[in-house]
């Protein structure tokens, strides 16, 4: 069955940025700006369901940024009123006022974390990829959160050609801001891996900063003793899950989380939910798991997940969850 302990939710498809390798820019057709409201969560994530199943919710989108969702703070407040499960927020951090960050900090606990996706060290450098970012409001947000929450704060950078010589500078800045962790991601979305980006990909860094697998790789530096803890359920499911047709499915292990799009559609992961052409079948399949029309408990118990899904015939399954690359670290990191 699906790993229901972790849900990865795109609470909003809205974003203020124009990152060139985001699906918003690469696949504009079919894109819709929308939010998931508080009543959606109360209807699907009932107190009983949360207490029986859910250990973690990650707010991050294929298209959108969670901080632009109208109901983000009320939704977190509702969830925390039921159970102090782990909340993760991944954001670019731009354009919110300090009062908003303070309010967000007030509903987060020590179990939670906020990842600020920052690839530069000032407005000009960060804007090279995070196009239309606002550096001043980002730093204000980090400072406001640090003063108002015990949640873990993470500077999450992607290695690019324009920043690879300043990674140490970004790491130093993160520590000086009182953040708990610096995370460097080695991406795959470069010309040497995807020919569509060309032979002279201006964003591609030197080889040591490009992922050597079909999925991103990460390097983490902890500044405090609040090191990332592997969820016990996650580790147990990894050890119990057997490969099927050469696939060790993360949707049965849970570290990536079952994905719910801003349209309220349930997918086994965010990778098959991305609106690229090779995922066209999943855009149709997910309509059968519309949480605006069906209850979440009913959807996760559907026989599809133990019959059709387990063919693992889709491209994303064959690359991201190939048993040859899914080791313990791969299967337990976010």
Number of helices: 14
Summing up helix and strand content along with how strands pair, one would put the structural category as: alpha/beta
Instruction: Extract low-pLDDT stretches.
Output: none
* Topology order in helix (H) and strand (E) letters: EHHHEHEHEHHEHEEHEEHHHHH
What would you call the shape? globular
Helix content class: 25-40%
Major pleated sheet = 9 strands, mixed
Rounded mean pLDDT is: 95
Distance between the termini: 20 Å
Q: Please state roughly what percent of the residues sit in beta strands, choosing from under 5%, 5-15%, 15-25%, 25-35%, 35-45% or over 45%.
A: 5-15%
Question: Order of strands side by side in the largest beta sheet?
Answer: 7-6-5-4-3-2-1-8-9
Please render the helix and strand layout as text.
Layout: E1 6-9, H1 23-26, H2 38-44, H3 47-53, E2 56-59, H4 72-82, E3 86-91, H5 98-107, E4 113-117, H6 123-126, H7 135-148, E5 152-158, H8 167-176, E6 181-186, E7 217-222, H9 232-240, E8 258-260, E9 266-267, H10 270-273, H11 280-285, H12 296-300, H13 315-320, H14 328-332
Parallel strand pairs: 1-2, 1-8, 2-3, 3-4, 4-5, 5-6
Antiparallel strand pairs: 6-7, 8-9
Helix pairs in contact: 5-7
